[in-house]
Amino acid sequence: MSSGVNRQVRLKARPSGIPQAEHFEIVETPIPEPSEGQVLIRNLFLSIEPAMRGWVSSVGNYAEPVPLGGVMRSFTVGRVAASRDPQFSPGDFVTGLFGWQDYAAVDGSEVQRRITDTDIPVSTALGVLGINGLTAYFALLELGQPKANETVVVSTAAGAVGSCVGQIAKIQGCRTVGIAGGPEKVALCRNEFGYDAAIDYRAGDLEAKIAEACPNGIDVYFDNTAGEISDAVMKRLAVGARVIICGTASISSWDPAPLGPRVERHLLVKRARMQGFLIFDYVDRYPEGLKMLADWIRAGLIHYREDILEGIEQAPGAIAGLYRGENLGKRLIRIASESELG
Amino acid sequence: MSSGVNRQVRLKARPSGIPQAEHFEIVETPIPEPSEGQVLIRNLFLSIEPAMRGWVSSVGNYAEPVPLGGVMRSFTVGRVAASRDPQFSPGDFVTGLFGWQDYAAVDGSEVQRRITDTDIPVSTALGVLGINGLTAYFALLELGQPKANETVVVSTAAGAVGSCVGQIAKIQGCRTVGIAGGPEKVALCRNEFGYDAAIDYRAGDLEAKIAEACPNGIDVYFDNTAGEISDAVMKRLAVGARVIICGTASISSWDPAPLGPRVERHLLVKRARMQGFLIFDYVDRYPEGLKMLADWIRAGLIHYREDILEGIEQAPGAIAGLYRGENLGKRLIRIASESELG
């Protein structure tokens, strides 16, 4: 095992805005040996997500920044290649923060979970049955508290989190309105993710289109953008609205914070609430969320899309592509051959 | 009775920003006769409050705008001069939305309450035992949910609402930090309202002073300003912070909304909440709040200040003066002689 090569994607320079390919480098190192209590994991899928911008930023954040020269932090799905922890056996599918690399030797306690729902593709542990689906589930239901017949608006509506939010809101009996960029994503919102209305924010006239799609105002706004889309949505909040701040995809740098229209008057007049969400506050409740999401997938109530790039050399440029909106569905990198995927 | 004169302050022109004296006119009309079921009220004290800017604005609001030519909407304290409602007797002290005028004939159901706690000055029904105290009570306790040892920051800390918020937070065992304009108000915060620390925002270096006064971050921010003070406070929120939006005193016009640093990243990283508060949502619970506030006043746990102007001709310019910060304490207009005050 240790004779092989472990390719690692390391952080080479700290970006001030969105991480680009040049901020990373690929380095070859020996495959590590697991010590007592450790498992050696062969990564199969690496995750690409908007939050990675924060993870490599030096600005205060909820996670320690990835150190310069360190392997890029990432959720992955892998298989146990060797185990010195009696809880795991070779061939087990597992997920956790194993980084952008071929192999990781980690303590058994660092495995986030063993994937047992193998009737659903294991790659979903990085999307709809991972952080993305769990974020949608807990953010919408806990912070948004949607009620039947309320209007729920979702920005990045065709994305990995947003598409799941829209479908969970639909399951709750809400009217769902998706906002996405470009006709392809808007069609996906309508045809695949069941939104009652979908708006292309790039096509102009956003405020009028929101007003038309939300004649009774907006009860829940699930936001992943924090820019001009939000500015337009905030003008149509209903009394008692809940705004969930889950991401800030449209802002290229927070240092310093960009200017936007102040929100206080909307919040005051509508007695509305804006609240930030971080999935890691809900770790103890992941099993509940995963069970519901898996059941809904099996029942055909939640659809998902994946955008799979091939080969670890795609990883360095993949975050920037995500911010350019070039993916349709959850972006992943497959780094193992079919035979290793089992 | 009907032979006398009723002076009324009417809205003459609709201001785009803060109402000035020239937006009102004083008109003399006959004293109205109460019809069956009505009471005739002799107003004693008129209230002056920041929310009046919204009441005369044509921009969408939670209350219908005061019509052009209409008597200015205002809470007042008055005495019943004549009654054709068996629930009220001449001489009763009452409070309600009786307007900037000497006399009002209103249905008995329009009386907000009869003032029975006459061991405390009746003028307090317009301040600490009225909307201001009730706002402080419900906004802080319901939206802010302060816990012992948490840090509570209050903007307009020496004002009618803010001073009460600071003292209620202190009763809850919180560390309280007041922000006010000028050395006189800062001294009042420290010496009269019991703040643990008080900051003069006009003296510069606000961010550093907030950081020094709040070494563990800010758990609850009670805001009445919505401007640069808030921008500085938001940078020091603690994880799980609650921001209560109660007023927007530092913004001279919301049409269009002024620009400020976007808040989404603060809310996201700190999983913080910003929520608008309107006291009229709590009408059913006023008795509970008034009882607690009166008990705290009698126990010496809540102090209050009043800034009383003499004569109805002071009313038209009094809102602008409030926004200039020229008052120390709740601003009122006394429009009746000592003999009428009982």
Provide a brief overview of the structure:
Two copies of one chain form a homodimer. Chain A has 342 residues and is an alpha/beta fold.
How would you describe the overall organization of this protein?
The structure is a homodimer of 342-residue chains. Chain A has 342 residues and is of the alpha/beta class. Chain A folds into two domains: 5-127 and 305-341, Medium-chain alcohol dehydrogenases, catalytic domain (Quinone Oxidoreductase, Chain A, domain 1), CATH 3.90.180.10; 131-280, Rossmann fold, CATH 3.40.50.720. Chain A is built from ten helices and 16 strands. In chain A, strands 3, 4, 5, 6, 7, 15 and 16 form a seven-stranded mixed β-sheet that branches. The first copy, chain A, has a six-stranded parallel β-sheet with strand order 10-9-8-11-12-14, sandwiched between helices. In chain A, helix 4 links the parallel strand 9 (175-180) and strand 10. Chain A is globular, with a radius of gyration of 20 Å. At the A-B interface, strand 13, helix 7 and strand 14 of A face strand 13, helix 7 and strand 14 of B.
